[in-house]
Design goal:
This protein is α/β, with parallel strands linked by helices. The chain is built from 10 helices and 10 strands. The chain binds iron/sulfur cluster (SF4). This is Radical SAM protein.
Amino acid sequence: MRYEGTVYRPPSEAGSLIIQLTIGCARNTCTFCNMYKDKKFRIRPLEEVVEDLEMARSYYSRIKVRRIFLADGDALIVKTEDLLYIIAKCKEIFPEVERISVYGAPKDILHKTPEELATLKAAGLDMVYMGLESGADEVLQAVKKGVTADEMIEAGKKVRAAGMILSMTVISGLGGKKLWREHALGSARVISAIKPEYVGFLTLMIEPGTEMYDQYNRGEIELLTPHEVLDETELFIRSVDAEGTMFRSNHASNYIPLGGTLNGERDKILGQIEISRRKSKFRPDVFRGI
Ligand code: SF4
Protein backbone atom coordinates (compact mmCIF):
# COMPACT_ATOMS: atom_id res chain seq x y z
CA MET A 1 0.00 0.00 0.00
CA ARG A 2 1.19 3.55 -0.59
CA TYR A 3 0.36 6.05 2.12
CA GLU A 4 1.43 9.67 2.24
CA GLY A 5 2.61 10.86 5.68
CA THR A 6 1.05 9.71 8.94
CA VAL A 7 -2.44 8.33 8.41
CA TYR A 8 -5.06 8.85 11.13
CA ARG A 9 -8.31 6.99 11.57
CA PRO A 10 -10.90 6.72 14.36
CA PRO A 11 -10.16 3.97 16.92
CA SER A 12 -13.21 2.01 15.74
CA GLU A 13 -11.71 1.80 12.25
CA ALA A 14 -8.69 -0.15 13.52
CA GLY A 15 -9.56 -3.18 11.39
CA SER A 16 -10.59 -1.21 8.28
CA LEU A 17 -8.84 -0.81 4.98
CA ILE A 18 -7.70 2.82 4.93
CA ILE A 19 -7.60 4.55 1.54
CA GLN A 20 -6.46 8.17 1.22
CA LEU A 21 -8.95 10.06 -0.92
CA THR A 22 -7.56 13.39 0.26
CA ILE A 23 -4.23 14.32 1.77
CA GLY A 24 -4.22 16.40 4.94
CA CYS A 25 -6.91 18.73 6.27
CA ALA A 26 -8.32 21.56 4.16
CA ARG A 27 -8.57 23.84 7.21
CA ASN A 28 -5.69 22.90 9.45
CA THR A 29 -6.35 25.85 11.77
CA CYS A 30 -7.33 24.14 15.05
CA THR A 31 -4.86 25.23 17.71
CA PHE A 32 -4.76 21.83 19.46
CA CYS A 33 -4.32 19.61 16.40
CA ASN A 34 -1.04 18.50 14.89
CA MET A 35 -2.39 15.65 12.78
CA TYR A 36 -1.86 17.15 9.37
CA LYS A 37 0.54 20.02 10.01
CA ASP A 38 3.15 18.38 7.75
CA LYS A 39 0.78 17.99 4.81
CA LYS A 40 -0.42 20.48 2.22
CA PHE A 41 -4.05 19.72 1.53
CA ARG A 42 -5.04 18.22 -1.81
CA ILE A 43 -7.63 15.93 -3.29
CA ARG A 44 -5.94 12.98 -4.93
CA PRO A 45 -6.60 12.20 -8.59
CA LEU A 46 -9.37 9.62 -8.65
CA GLU A 47 -7.39 7.21 -10.82
CA GLU A 48 -4.68 7.08 -8.11
CA VAL A 49 -7.28 6.24 -5.50
CA VAL A 50 -8.66 3.46 -7.70
CA GLU A 51 -5.11 2.14 -8.19
CA ASP A 52 -4.78 1.99 -4.39
CA LEU A 53 -8.03 0.05 -4.15
CA GLU A 54 -6.80 -2.42 -6.77
CA MET A 55 -3.42 -2.74 -5.03
CA ALA A 56 -5.21 -3.43 -1.75
CA ARG A 57 -7.37 -6.05 -3.44
CA SER A 58 -4.34 -7.94 -4.72
CA TYR A 59 -2.76 -7.66 -1.27
CA TYR A 60 -5.91 -8.86 0.47
CA SER A 61 -6.87 -11.37 -2.20
CA ARG A 62 -7.74 -14.03 0.39
CA ILE A 63 -9.05 -11.73 3.09
CA LYS A 64 -12.54 -10.29 3.16
CA VAL A 65 -12.48 -6.51 3.58
CA ARG A 66 -15.63 -5.63 5.48
CA ARG A 67 -14.87 -1.99 6.22
CA ILE A 68 -13.23 0.82 4.29
CA PHE A 69 -12.32 4.21 5.75
CA LEU A 70 -11.68 7.00 3.27
CA ALA A 71 -9.00 9.26 4.78
CA ASP A 72 -7.53 11.89 5.38
CA GLY A 73 -9.09 14.66 7.43
CA ASP A 74 -12.27 15.55 5.57
CA ALA A 75 -13.17 13.36 2.62
CA LEU A 76 -16.60 14.99 2.38
CA ILE A 77 -14.94 18.04 0.81
CA VAL A 78 -14.72 15.96 -2.38
CA LYS A 79 -17.40 16.67 -5.01
CA THR A 80 -20.40 14.39 -4.58
CA GLU A 81 -20.11 12.90 -8.08
CA ASP A 82 -16.47 11.98 -7.41
CA LEU A 83 -17.35 10.51 -4.02
CA LEU A 84 -20.07 8.44 -5.66
CA TYR A 85 -17.54 7.19 -8.21
CA ILE A 86 -15.07 6.14 -5.49
CA ILE A 87 -17.78 4.50 -3.39
CA ALA A 88 -18.92 2.54 -6.46
CA LYS A 89 -15.32 1.46 -7.07
CA CYS A 90 -14.96 0.37 -3.43
CA LYS A 91 -18.01 -1.83 -3.86
CA GLU A 92 -16.96 -3.15 -7.25
CA ILE A 93 -13.44 -4.08 -6.12
CA PHE A 94 -14.53 -5.22 -2.64
CA PRO A 95 -18.04 -6.65 -3.15
CA GLU A 96 -17.91 -7.98 0.42
CA VAL A 97 -17.60 -4.50 1.98
CA GLU A 98 -20.23 -3.80 4.62
CA ARG A 99 -19.36 -0.30 5.77
CA ILE A 100 -17.69 2.72 4.17
CA SER A 101 -16.95 5.69 6.41
CA VAL A 102 -15.25 9.09 6.41
CA TYR A 103 -14.34 12.04 8.62
CA GLY A 104 -16.79 14.83 7.84
CA ALA A 105 -16.00 18.46 8.60
CA PRO A 106 -19.17 20.42 9.52
CA LYS A 107 -18.68 23.02 6.78
CA ASP A 108 -18.35 20.31 4.13
CA ILE A 109 -21.53 18.65 5.37
CA LEU A 110 -23.32 22.00 5.23
CA HIS A 111 -22.15 22.52 1.66
CA LYS A 112 -23.88 19.33 0.58
CA THR A 113 -27.63 19.32 -0.02
CA PRO A 114 -29.86 16.85 1.85
CA GLU A 115 -30.38 15.10 -1.50
CA GLU A 116 -26.62 14.73 -2.04
CA LEU A 117 -26.17 13.23 1.42
CA ALA A 118 -29.09 10.86 0.87
CA THR A 119 -27.58 9.78 -2.48
CA LEU A 120 -24.23 9.15 -0.80
CA LYS A 121 -25.92 7.07 1.86
CA ALA A 122 -27.89 5.10 -0.74
CA ALA A 123 -24.64 4.49 -2.65
CA GLY A 124 -22.99 3.01 0.45
CA LEU A 125 -21.49 5.79 2.56
CA ASP A 126 -22.68 4.49 5.91
CA MET A 127 -20.92 6.46 8.58
CA VAL A 128 -19.53 9.92 9.26
CA TYR A 129 -17.16 10.86 12.08
CA MET A 130 -17.48 14.52 13.04
CA GLY A 131 -15.23 16.30 15.51
CA LEU A 132 -17.42 18.51 17.68
CA GLU A 133 -14.50 19.17 20.05
CA SER A 134 -16.73 21.55 22.04
CA GLY A 135 -20.29 22.75 21.90
CA ALA A 136 -19.38 26.12 23.42
CA ASP A 137 -18.87 28.96 20.96
CA GLU A 138 -16.27 30.62 23.22
CA VAL A 139 -14.18 27.44 23.11
CA LEU A 140 -14.69 26.80 19.39
CA GLN A 141 -13.56 30.35 18.70
CA ALA A 142 -10.56 30.11 21.02
CA VAL A 143 -9.33 26.91 19.34
CA LYS A 144 -10.02 28.29 15.83
CA LYS A 145 -12.33 25.46 14.81
CA GLY A 146 -13.93 27.80 12.27
CA VAL A 147 -17.49 26.75 12.97
CA THR A 148 -20.18 27.64 15.50
CA ALA A 149 -22.10 25.34 17.80
CA ASP A 150 -25.30 26.00 15.85
CA GLU A 151 -23.57 25.07 12.60
CA MET A 152 -22.44 21.85 14.28
CA ILE A 153 -26.05 21.11 15.18
CA GLU A 154 -27.22 21.80 11.63
CA ALA A 155 -24.47 19.61 10.14
CA GLY A 156 -25.08 16.76 12.59
CA LYS A 157 -28.81 16.81 11.96
CA LYS A 158 -28.22 16.69 8.22
CA VAL A 159 -26.08 13.58 8.51
CA ARG A 160 -28.69 11.90 10.69
CA ALA A 161 -31.53 12.91 8.37
CA ALA A 162 -29.66 11.23 5.50
CA GLY A 163 -29.75 7.99 7.50
CA MET A 164 -25.99 7.76 8.05
CA ILE A 165 -24.49 6.67 11.36
CA LEU A 166 -22.96 9.68 13.10
CA SER A 167 -20.10 9.45 15.56
CA MET A 168 -18.99 12.66 17.27
CA THR A 169 -16.03 13.49 19.49
CA VAL A 170 -15.68 15.97 22.33
CA ILE A 171 -12.32 16.90 23.87
CA SER A 172 -12.40 16.98 27.67
CA GLY A 173 -10.51 19.94 29.07
CA LEU A 174 -10.54 21.91 25.82
CA GLY A 175 -11.97 24.99 27.55
CA GLY A 176 -9.27 24.90 30.24
CA LYS A 177 -10.03 26.04 33.77
CA LYS A 178 -11.65 29.23 32.51
CA LEU A 179 -14.36 27.72 30.28
CA TRP A 180 -14.93 24.19 31.61
CA ARG A 181 -18.55 24.83 32.57
CA GLU A 182 -19.40 26.44 29.23
CA HIS A 183 -17.62 23.55 27.50
CA ALA A 184 -19.60 20.88 29.36
CA LEU A 185 -22.97 22.61 29.05
CA GLY A 186 -22.48 23.69 25.43
CA SER A 187 -21.40 20.18 24.42
CA ALA A 188 -24.43 18.72 26.21
CA ARG A 189 -26.67 21.15 24.29
CA VAL A 190 -25.24 20.16 20.90
CA ILE A 191 -25.30 16.41 21.59
CA SER A 192 -28.87 16.70 22.93
CA ALA A 193 -29.96 18.49 19.75
CA ILE A 194 -28.35 15.96 17.40
CA LYS A 195 -28.57 12.70 19.39
CA PRO A 196 -25.84 10.99 17.34
CA GLU A 197 -25.43 7.23 17.52
CA TYR A 198 -22.06 7.68 19.26
CA VAL A 199 -20.32 10.36 21.26
CA GLY A 200 -16.73 9.74 22.28
CA PHE A 201 -14.76 11.82 24.76
CA LEU A 202 -11.02 12.26 24.29
CA THR A 203 -8.95 14.21 26.79
CA LEU A 204 -6.87 17.18 25.74
CA MET A 205 -3.18 16.55 25.21
CA ILE A 206 -0.86 19.40 24.40
CA GLU A 207 1.01 18.38 21.29
CA PRO A 208 4.35 19.92 20.27
CA GLY A 209 4.12 21.82 17.00
CA THR A 210 0.65 23.22 17.72
CA GLU A 211 -0.39 26.77 18.48
CA MET A 212 -1.81 25.50 21.77
CA TYR A 213 1.61 24.17 22.76
CA ASP A 214 3.03 27.68 22.47
CA GLN A 215 0.03 29.17 24.33
CA TYR A 216 0.52 26.63 27.10
CA ASN A 217 4.22 27.40 27.40
CA ARG A 218 3.42 31.10 27.61
CA GLY A 219 1.06 30.29 30.52
CA GLU A 220 -2.05 31.32 28.59
CA ILE A 221 -3.83 27.99 29.11
CA GLU A 222 -4.41 26.16 32.37
CA LEU A 223 -5.04 22.44 31.97
CA LEU A 224 -7.65 20.62 34.03
CA THR A 225 -6.47 18.10 36.60
CA PRO A 226 -7.89 14.55 36.28
CA HIS A 227 -10.39 15.38 39.06
CA GLU A 228 -11.49 18.51 37.21
CA VAL A 229 -11.92 16.47 34.02
CA LEU A 230 -14.26 14.21 36.02
CA ASP A 231 -16.23 17.26 37.25
CA GLU A 232 -16.55 18.48 33.67
CA THR A 233 -17.65 15.05 32.39
CA GLU A 234 -20.14 14.75 35.23
CA LEU A 235 -21.70 18.10 34.33
CA PHE A 236 -22.00 16.94 30.72
CA ILE A 237 -23.59 13.62 31.69
CA ARG A 238 -26.05 15.30 34.06
CA SER A 239 -27.02 17.90 31.43
CA VAL A 240 -27.23 15.88 28.23
CA ASP A 241 -30.53 14.52 26.90
CA ALA A 242 -29.71 12.10 24.09
CA GLU A 243 -31.79 8.95 24.36
CA GLY A 244 -30.01 6.07 22.62
CA THR A 245 -26.64 7.79 22.14
CA MET A 246 -23.75 5.56 23.12
CA PHE A 247 -21.30 7.48 25.28
CA ARG A 248 -17.69 6.32 25.41
CA SER A 249 -14.65 7.75 27.11
CA ASN A 250 -12.20 4.92 26.57
CA HIS A 251 -9.60 6.52 24.30
CA ALA A 252 -5.87 6.26 25.01
CA SER A 253 -5.88 9.95 25.96
CA ASN A 254 -8.45 9.51 28.74
CA TYR A 255 -7.51 9.31 32.42
CA ILE A 256 -10.17 6.67 33.12
CA PRO A 257 -12.52 4.57 30.97
CA LEU A 258 -16.23 5.37 31.11
CA GLY A 259 -19.13 4.18 29.03
CA GLY A 260 -22.85 3.62 28.77
CA THR A 261 -25.90 4.33 26.69
CA LEU A 262 -27.72 7.61 27.31
CA ASN A 263 -30.10 8.40 28.88
CA GLY A 264 -30.93 5.03 30.43
CA GLU A 265 -27.45 4.38 31.78
CA ARG A 266 -26.85 7.91 33.05
CA ASP A 267 -26.75 6.72 36.67
CA LYS A 268 -24.36 3.94 35.77
CA ILE A 269 -21.96 6.44 34.16
CA LEU A 270 -22.30 8.82 37.11
CA GLY A 271 -21.50 5.86 39.37
CA GLN A 272 -18.34 5.13 37.35
CA ILE A 273 -17.33 8.77 37.74
CA GLU A 274 -17.92 8.69 41.49
CA ILE A 275 -15.91 5.49 41.95
CA SER A 276 -13.03 6.95 39.90
CA ARG A 277 -13.14 10.12 41.95
CA ARG A 278 -12.87 8.15 45.20
CA LYS A 279 -10.19 5.76 43.95
CA SER A 280 -8.19 8.63 42.44
CA LYS A 281 -6.37 6.20 40.17
CA PHE A 282 -5.77 7.79 36.80
CA ARG A 283 -3.81 6.73 33.74
CA PRO A 284 -0.41 8.40 34.17
CA ASP A 285 0.34 11.12 31.62
CA VAL A 286 3.27 9.12 30.21
CA PHE A 287 0.83 6.37 29.16
CA ARG A 288 -1.68 8.72 27.60
CA GLY A 289 -1.65 9.05 23.84
CA ILE A 290 -3.60 10.33 20.86
S1 SF4 B 1 -9.12 18.99 14.32
FE1 SF4 B 1 -9.91 18.32 12.32
S2 SF4 B 1 -10.49 20.25 11.27
FE2 SF4 B 1 -9.13 20.80 12.97
S3 SF4 B 1 -7.07 20.89 12.05
FE3 SF4 B 1 -7.32 18.82 12.94
S4 SF4 B 1 -8.09 17.59 11.24
FE4 SF4 B 1 -8.37 19.74 10.64
